[in-house]
Each structure stands twice: as structure tokens, then as C-alpha cells.
Design a protein that fits this description.
It is a single chain. This protein is α/β, with parallel strands linked by helices. The radius of gyration is 17 Å and the shape is globular. The two termini are 26 Å apart. Helix content is 49%, strand content 14%. It is built from nine helices and six strands, in the order αβαβαβααβαββααα. Strands 3-2-1-4-6-5 form a six-stranded mixed beta sheet, with helices on both faces.
Length: 236
């Protein structure tokens, strides 16, 4: 946890993600990234000089076989308030709309449901588990698929909802999250989504892994180029 917190604290301080009095909702899918972020923010809360409150929100997308009881038990153990929101997003995306490219619509609906619940809980910020590798993947997805240089920002203010999105894991590599989950036997929920592992993002993940094997250290160089660029919200 010390290593995880070192990455989180650096990101939080570099981009001024947390202020006194914040009420932060963590979007927890049950996967390794969001659960680790939830645990990291709970640990940070104990000693961080700026005092903040923490809520966990999990969206039940309605997929058969999804079991959120291990997440609920973990939250009880760690004294984190968990709100489980039942939705019909899975049915809408895969059955009613029968989307050929389901991820875009699913992400849009998940964002809407998460933000709505965060507002109900009185939160002013939403923490998302996007990590270091997500930064690189998003950059190349924008470049290859949209012919533009871009990426999500470490901090994003949403005018419509008056919520601020923060991404405290931008310095945290995916392999470090996997190691933390394995070493601490963190319960991770199986993802029952039919599109899991078959997306453009998975293809980009495979591409970047191959690129890094053939060009040692290139992921770090690309990340630093993004951080030092004029992409909105990145330059410190």
C-alpha cells in the first residue's frame, strides 16, 4: 500500500485533485483498478492533511451471474459506505439496442448513472480508476481512430453536473495494480460483460505491450511526452 499511496499522493498533489471538505465518490466496478483505488483513497484519508469524505458507488449493470457480495463484505470490513445501484444498462445495450459497438453507449449510460448517484449522495467529486496504461491507450485510440492528439485529463470539471472528475491513478501502472491485488488477496469481481476482452481498447493494450517489448522504456517516454504536452489539463 505504501507504493500505491506514493503514486496516488503525487498525482493528487501535482494536479490539486483534493481540497478540504471534498466529498468524493469512487466509481467501483468490482474490478482490480477501481477496488484498489477505493482502498488507496481510504488509506490516504487517514493521514492526508486536506480532510475529505469517501463514498463508494457500484453500478449493477444487470448481467446474469454478477455477484457483488465480496465487494460489499470488503466495504463493511474497511468501513466504506457502499451504494449498489441496480440498472438495466446491460439489457438496453445488448438486448434492446443490440449495439454492434456496445462500449460507447454503455460508457455513456454508466457515466450518467454514476454522476446522478454521486449528486444524490452530496458528492462534489468522482474518482475514477484510470491508470498509467489507460492514459497511453486512450492517447493512441484518439490518434489512430479519431486522427487527433488527445487524452482524458487528470482533472475534469463538468459544467452540467457541477461535478469534478479526478483520476488519482494516472501514475500507477497496471502491472503494479495486479501485483497489489495478488499480494493482498483483494477480492475482484468477475466481469460478465459479453464484450470483455474483445474491444478496441484490448487491441490497443496488446499493441502497446508489443511496442514496449520491442522498444524498452518507450511507454515511459510516451507518457512523459503526454504530461509535457499542451493536451488539455496535463501540463503541471
Amino acid at each position: 500500500m505504501r507504493k500505491v499511496l506514493s503514486h496516488v499522493r503525487k498525482a493528487v498533489e501535482d494536479y490539486n485533485m483534493i481540497e478540504d471538505g471534498d466529498r468524493i465518490a469512487v466509481g467501483v466496478s468490482g474490478g482490480k483498478d477501481s477496488i484498489t483505488l477505493m482502498l488507496a483513497l481510504k488509506a490516504l484519508k487517514r493521514f492526508y492533511p486536506k480532510k475529505f469524505e469517501l463514498e463508494a458507488i457500484c453500478l449493477d449493470l444487470g448481467f446474469e451471474g454478477a455477484d457483488y457480495s465480496p465487494l460489499a463484505e470488503l466495504c463493511r470490513e474497511k468501513e466504506i459506505n457502499l451504494t449498489l445501484v441496480k440498472t438495466q444498462i446491460g439489457e438496453v445495450v445488448f438486448d434492446i439496442r443490440n449495439e454492434k459497438n456496445p462500449c460507447s453507449l454503455c460508457a455513456k449510460m454508466r457515466r450518467g448513472a454514476l454522476h446522478e448517484e454521486a449528486k444524490k449522495l452530496g458528492c462534489n467529486k468522482v474518482a475514477l480508476g484510470h491508470h498509467y496504461d489507460d492514459v497511453l491507450e486512450t492517447f493512441f485510440l484518439c490518434l489512430f481512430n479519431e486522427a487527433r492528439v488527445g487524452c482524458f485529463s487528470p482533472v475534469t470539471y463538468l459544467d452540467r453536473t457541477k461535478l469534478t472528475l479526478i483520476r488519482p491513478f494516472i501514475y500507477m501502472e497496471e502491472r503494479e495494480i495486479k501485483r497489489f491485488v495478488r499480494d493482498n488477496e483483494v477480492p475482484v469481481i468477475f466481469n460478465p460483460c459479453p464484450a470483455d476482452g474483445k474491444t478496441n481498447r484490448q487491441n490497443m493494450k496488446d499493441f502497446l505491450a508489443k511496442l514496449n517489448r520491442e522498444n524498452h522504456g518507450i511507454k515511459g517516454r510516451i507518457f512523459h511526452a503526454i504530461a509535457n504536452s499542451d493536451i488539455d489539463g496535463w501540463r503541471i
